[in-house]
Write a structure and sequence with these properties.
Rossmann fold, seven-stranded parallel sheet, 8 helices, Sc_DH/Rdtase_CS, binds nicotinamide-adenine-dinucleotide, alpha/beta, SDR_fam, KR_dom
């Protein structure tokens, strides 16, 4: 039994890592999937992969920090598939490590523009559509760094902490409108972001994980699909850690 037949999913940052795994999972569970990313070539590869697997997919180049891109991406999704049931706002970037007094203003803005403002821009468009159709679920990718500090990572941690406030407030705004809004908080996950973060020294990240291994992007996808499914029907405003105990 597939869990999302007739449903439409929208995924940002879908060309790599957690977004890619989640887009594939949605398609395998029967959803029609709009895959969006600012990087085009790997997005095209994913589109071909999902199509070859029998999935219905639309690939859209979209930089989440650009309002016109986001508006056009949501509009194209609705034009193609007729609705938008599950929105996974996942696009995010890591900071260049620096203590607070050494963070350049443009570096601070770069992180907040994508991680926080980008998520807000997506939510505005997605939720407007969900209100028109009378239902929907939003999941935002935060991080363990949304509930703990990170030395050298103040801009990233601040952006992810803010996502929790955005998620909780939106959950209240739409609680009576049949729209749920939740956040997933990944720990240390095997993706290209992790490769860049550790400079290839994966043992450094494994040492941070109580369970003694990194998480897989598919393990985040499982949690996102659960939140988007009817199994999560009473879950809204939640911050769900999927992190092997990292944030404890
Ligand atoms: P990744 O680098 O593998 O993938 C991120 C994707 O987002 C890339 O395809 C990139 O092109 C895209 N992207 C970046 N900026 C964008 C923008 N402005 N507009 C559209 N797309 C953009 O990273 P990942 O590990 O899969 O990260 C996904 C999310 O998970 C991020 O929000 C990240 O902060 C969060 N996260 C990751 C980890 C981890 O350990 N990997 C841990 C906690 C949280």
């Amino acid at each position: 039994m597939r869990r999302f037949p007739g449903k439409v999913a929208f995924v940002t940052g879908a060309a790599s890592g957690i977004g890619r795994a989640t887009a594939i999972a949605f398609a395998r569970e029967g959803a029609q999937v709009a895959i969006t990313d600012r990087t085009e070539a790997p997005l095209e590869e994913l589109r071909a992969e999902i199509e070859a697997d029998g999935g219905a997919v639309l690939a859209i180049r979209c930089d989440v920090s650009v309002p016109a891109d986001v508006e056009a991406a949501v509009a194209s999704t609705v034009a193609q598939f007729g609705r938008l049931d599950c929105a996974f706002n996942n696009a995010g970037i890591e900071n260049k490590a620096a203590p607070v007094h050494e963070i350049a203003l443009d570096e601070w803005d770069r992180i907040l523009d994508v991680n926080l403002r980008g998520t807000f821009l997506c939510m505005k468009q997605e939720i407007a559509q969900m209100l028109r159709q009378g239902s929907g679920v939003v999941v935002n990718t935060a991080s363990g760094a949304a509930i703990r500090g990170v030395a050298g990572g103040a801009s990233y941690a601040a952006s992810k902490h803010a996502l929790i406030g955005l998620t909780k407030s939106a959950a209240l705004d739409y609680a009576k409108s049949n729209i749920r809004v939740n956040a997933v908080l990944p720990g240390n996950i095997e993706t290209s972001m992790m490769d860049r973060f550790t400079g290839g020294d994966i043992q450094k990240a494994i040492a941070l994980e109580p369970v003694g291994r990194l998480g897989k992007p598919e393990e985040i996808a499982d949690a996102v699909l659960w939140m988007c499914s009817d199994l999560g029907s009473f879950v809204t405003g939640a911050s769900i850690s999927v992190d092997g105990g990292w944030s404890l």
